[in-house]
Amino acid sequence: MGMNSRGEIQRLAEIVEPHIGVISNIHHSHVGFLGSLEEI
Fold this sequence. Notes:
Layout: H1 8-16
């Protein structure tokens, strides 16, 4: 899954109901519309 707005992962997780999650990469280039790494 990927996200570009706040709450998007939650909505996607409600659809697919995953059992585990792995954060593989967070970088300044992923900030986009979220504004900061803290918001991610």
